[in-house]
Structure prediction request, 543 residues.
Amino acid sequence: MTTPVRRRRELLARAQEKTFDLLVIGGGITGAGIARQAAWMNISMALIEQADFASGTSSRSSKLLHGGLRYLAQGNFRLVREAVRERMAVYKAAPHLVRPLPFLFPQFEGNYPGMIRLAIGIWIYHAMIGFKSFGPHQRLSAAEIEKSIPGIRTAGLDGGYQYWDAQTDDARLTLEIILDAEALGATALNRVRLLAARQENGLWICDVEDTSTAAEFSIRTQSVAVAVGPWMDRMARIFDAEALRRMRPTQGVHILIPSARLSVPTAIVLLHPDDQRFMYAIPMESGTLIGTTDTDCSEPAVEPTVDNDSIDYLLRAANHFFPDKKLRRDDVFSMYAGLRPLILDDDVTASKVSREHAVYQLATNVVAIGGGKLTTWRPMANDAIAQILPSLRTTDTPSKAADREYRDRPLPGGVGIADREVLAGRTAEITSGYGLSMESAETVVYTYGARADAVLATAQSVAGGMKTYGRIGVLAGAFVFNVLHEHALTLDDLMRRRSRLYYTEYDQGRAVAREIAELVAPHVEWDDSRVDAEVAAYLELCL
Ligand code: FAD
Prediction:
């Protein structure tokens, strides 16, 4: 049987031996989308990611698939229309990862946008997808809101509107896109960083480092797609020393509050009392996610840190809208910061910078893509590929039929799953068939979709594999599945991106971290000192 260690060695060897048509730099959702579409078009390609897949911005978002009602107010109809349509398309491709969610936008006396403008905005939002949303929008009176959202501010409450968007697991969505790209022939490597690049005889020679061993080698490719999100300016200078500044990254912080302190039945759109910025309170498995901030960031860090001012800013908003809760810093059980890869526009404040994407020609046969949203990964990939295609010798433009087939192609966990009702049926079967709790069965089904059976088979095949961890009952065997089949290379990969223990547990999974590391250790050839190092590195990331 191929072990994860042997498999990685083979992937690294393949990356060094072949000459690719396309090398994608960056394993966030944008690079993943480009890789999947390129592999579908039979373009010989590889993708490298300096850390873990999705470890950049693509696991640090608000985890929403949405059109962004607020962009309507900025007159950005194209972006909103594209995003609301894509939200439905992602649901079709991966229903297990897309949870339809009602959003309530309460209106307070004298506040923006006011009931009439809000009603028009929501109508336009729904009209853009032919009124085929996850559910109907509706007007709610102040009394109805008070009843449905216990503890919400009542002073000046005029009423509000409820509409539908969706919630996702950003890291696993990105991972599934990468897994599908691999199924289509892509070579995908996490923990490989681009260091330098030069042109020789019409090829790009990209010098890279395997950051898990510090070994350096080169990858040969005809063309390059740079999809490094907020790191684009730094990367552009590798290909063009004189590259212009094109990005204006901004940092967004989220905090998590336990359900016992704040629980919301729907997502709530809030305007921050200090500056009237849009924010959300979003229901999560074991608490409420509050975010986000939007502040300029001059030097993007791989592991952006959360500052106290941002926590206080978010708590101020939460306490304004839920005045009796009196939330304090020690109510926060988890938090994270992400960097928006926004296109430079110095003339506006951070929160008004456009979320649209742009594709640039950086050098001969090198394109870069910046901006955009998690939700719009497919059109972003499509635009990047369109600009790359002329530089490739091998590929014809795909036919309309092939285009349609690609559009309808499910992600691996969505194969054969028409909608979430099918998943509810699978949950019931797994609960009774495997003697699992409802939470545990739901977690395996809504994390892995059609792949749940494979995860359960792995869990049954390893000692202690059916044990569960945390409030949402993550199967021990799922961690083994993650290292065997999902490129997990560190304990951090398992805790923050393959599972969500960092976000669901009030101790961020600290108490079970060592046990999980010891469970996977024989499969990834970790000795005792490596287990110690993995645990120490993970605890360092926690609060
Ligand atoms: P990234 O995910 O950052 O990926 C780029 C990758 O490149 C990184 O993983 C990085 O490690 C890698 N890289 C960098 N340098 C190198 C190198 N030298 N070699 C190899 N790899 C390298 N969008 C939505 O649709 N819905 C939301 O709810 C939402 N909320 C958001 C909330 C916040 C706070 C933020 C910050 C963003 C949010 N977004 C949202 C936007 C969305 O998350 C981003 O647009 C998207 O994730 C960007 O993906 P990306 O692949 O372009 O960048």
Summary: The chain has a mean pLDDT of 95.
